[in-house]
Specification:
Length: 177
C-alpha cells in the first residue's frame, strides 16, 4: 500500500486477515490513529516479506505489526532523503523476526541519498538482532569506500551472512579487492 491517508489497527488487521497475503508494503502513511490505544491481535503466518518506512517502525511496532507477522524473512526498511540510518531502529525492527534472512536498507533517490554515519553501531545492530541473516542489501545509502570496507570487515564474523549487496552507495567497483 502506498500513500495511505490514515492507518488504524483495525484497518491493518483487515489487511493482515487476507488468507494468502505473503508480502506487505506500508509506505508514506501520512497519519496514524493511536488515540484509542488499540493494537493488533492475532497472527498471520503467511507474511514473509515486510516493507516499511524506517521513521514509522516505532509506531507500527506499537500497533503490534511485528507480533502479527512473526515469520517475516525479508525486511525492507526505507529511509527518507538525507536521513541517517539509525542502528536503534534497525535493532528494534529486526529483533522480533527470528526467521529474518534478508535485510534491505534503502534510501530515497535520486539526488539526496540517506547516510550511514556509524558503521560500527550499525554492524553491531545487524549481528545482534539478525542472527540468521544471510543477505544484507544497502541501496541509495551514501557510504564511500572506507565505510563500505568497514561494514564488510565488521560483518565477516556474522555466522550466516553470505551476501552483502551495495547498490548506488557511492563506492568503487574495486572495493572487494
Amino acid at each position: 500500500m502506498k500513500d495511505v491517508s490514515m492507518m488504524t489497527p483495525s484497518r491493518l488487521h483487515s489487511i493482515l486477515a487476507l488468507p494468502c497475503l505473503q508480502s506487505l508494503t506500508l509506505r508514506n502513511v501520512r497519519e496514524f490513529n493511536t488515540d484509542d490505544r488499540e493494537t493488533l491481535t492475532g497472527q498471520t503466518f503467511s507474511v514473509d516479506e515486510l516493507s516499511v518506512d524506517g521513521m514509522h517502525v516505532t509506531i507500527l511496532w506499537n500497533f503490534g505489526l511485528h507480533t502479527s507477522c512473526p515469520r517475516v524473512q525479508k525486511l525492507l526498511l526505507d529511509w527518507s532523503a538525507m536521513e541517517n540510518v539509525s542502528s536503534d531502529i534497525v535493532t528494534m525492527a529486526c529483533s522480533p523476526f527470528h526467521d529474518l534472512t534478508h535485510l534491505h536498507i534503502r534510501g530515497q533517490m535520486p539526488f539526496r541519498a540517506s547516510t550511514l554515519n556509524d558503521p560500527v553501531s550499525f554492524c553491531d545492530a545487524v549481528k545482534t538482532s539478525c542472527p540468521r541473516l544471510t543477505k544484507l542489501s544497502l541501496t541509495n545509502i551514501v557510504l564511500t569506500n572506507k565505510k563500505a570496507a568497514e561494514i564488510i570487515q565488521l560483518l565477516k564474523t556474522h555466522p550466516n551472512l553470505t551476501s552483502i549487496e551495495l547498490k548506488t552507495c557511492d563506492t568503487d567497483m574495486d572495493l572487494i579487492h
